[in-house]
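Notes on consecutive records. When two proteins share a document, each keeps its own sequence and its own token line. Never mix them. Below: protein one.
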Amino acid sequence: MATISDVAARAGVSTATVSRALNGKSTVDPMLAARVQEAAAELGYHPNGLARNLRRQETAVLALIISDVENPFFTAIARGVEDLAQRSGYSVVLCNSDENEDKERRYIEVALQERVAGVVLSPTGRSTNVEGLRRQGTPLVAVDRPLPADAGDQVLVDTRHAAAEATRHLLAGGYRRVACLTGPAGVRTADDRLAGYTDVVGEANAVSRRAEYRAEGARLAALELLDEPSPPDALLVANSTMAIGVLEALSSRGLRSGRDVGIVSFDDAPWTTLIEPPLTVVAQPAYEVGRVAAQLLLARITDSSREATTTTLEARLIERKSSRR
């Protein structure tokens, strides 16, 4: 990892000049400043923002990069991370990747440039690249979706088992044509929920649609299913944001959840008990995911030699009227 001394040697200037040039001080000759910038770029050097903060006796910083700030599941994770981090003297910077690989990559780059003390990350998918964090020795904990085992600690939820339980619940309630509406291919949580559903109904009987983890995509996918010659009489929905789109689709067809189409959705969002009928949900321990992730991250900041661990938490089915005829 390049140091300020390496940059000074490459540019042929003093470390003080490097510091002034990279901090944009006007006292540095423009030609020297350009030479410093070029040397820093060649060496991949980033000013140590965390060290500056500590010299000023400011609070150490953790970066939390989540997939969708509008999804109550991720905001509950954020609260769990922040509550524990604050008690331990750390501030948390929240970054919303918006399920976008480019945004995720930029936020990881910002974390590298600012030399944050550690990162909690909900990966967008298979293309998530944390090699830069690993090279710089930045502690990392993945939440909700896994990374390769050697990337760092992970806190996950066993959603495959939970999806199977929810599917069995719908079948036990008298529904016979249960379909699954899940997220994008390659996103582990979406794949696991579809797999849990298929474990119960079997490959031959599985009916599913994939959409982005968004209400509009789920609405269109649900309408597509409802327009089938033999439409499903029950739906397992992969998250609460998608459930909003599904309920909109049912309403546009004059159908009622429970009576006409049974619904079970992942995530116990605050609004799920306010509608009629209330929504049956698979409640994930989102706050606990965040709390455990922060705990693991702070432990790794203290002792980087610890072996990487995977913590898997359980979800629970909460039965309400949307899955009763």
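Protein two starts on the next line and is unrelated to protein one.
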Amino acid sequence: MDLDVFVAAHRAEWTRLDELLRRRRRLTGAEADELVALYQRTATHLSLVQSSAPDPQLIGRLTQLVAGARSAVTGARKASWRDATRFLAAGFPAALYRTRRWWTTTAVLSLVLAAVVGWWIGTHPEVQSSIAAPDELRELTRPGGQYETYYSSHAATSFAAQVWTNNAQVAAVCLVLGAFLGIPVLWVILQNMLNLGIGIGLMSSVGRLDTFLGLILPHGLLELTAVFVAAGTGLRLGWTVIDPGPRSRRSALAREGRAAIGMAIGLAVVLFVSGAIEGFVTPSGLPPWARIGIGVAAEAAFLVYVFVVGRRAARAGETGDVAESDRSAELPAAA
């Protein structure tokens, strides 16, 4: 494309569109129709320039014109409670279902790693001694020791809030840093699984694994699932950098990035539930079977939410992305 010829041919249209935008509140019916037609043509011009003859200055001008015209044509839209309800009822479960292979694989591999680390520590006293001194290990694992008192060391409300904040930060790190080829996500998951494996190993070495699981499972089932979802989504985002598929890399990252932001909001709600369980149920005086039953029920509800509600929403066309009318126009990828 000869850029100078292209600009000379269409400059008058862009100038006219800019003029109509400046007085869009006082347009006649014919002028409003003209604005729509010029908006459509200018959007096409922008696509052509970006794909065939990218010029930063011209792209900036046309992008500003297209954005202004789009706002004038479609009108500004404010988010409402209806948007939030629709997201939780369809968008979020669809995104969970769409990424299920990533986070279920992450969950299986992570739990296998934690189990192997726990077995290794639990069956090798020399490894245990490298973790801490004997007195410190006894203080951790004895009845009424630190592993047990941890969950009742603070008031339930403040403890639940602290847990929720910490877990939400872990999930956000996985989602945000996934674009760095997923490497930070792998590090976060490794740290979490090592901590879990150490707890399993130390408590099993003194015959108190049942006590440890009775404390971990009520909140841990849902909490770890949320972390695995965040990690799997982050890894998917990192893979998109490597292999964007048929879309341009920018377009693919934009779509997956928007879905990841939505996922972060949805997971904050999930982690709020697990934090409440950890703050109020785990340290409660309920028998272990009742506490674990609550955790299993919460996890089962989440899985139904994903594989029943999410599958139905995904088949209906939901992706977890924002509505098409709220997205920037995507450019055709060069063949």
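For the record: Residues 133 and 139 are 10 Å apart (CA to CA).
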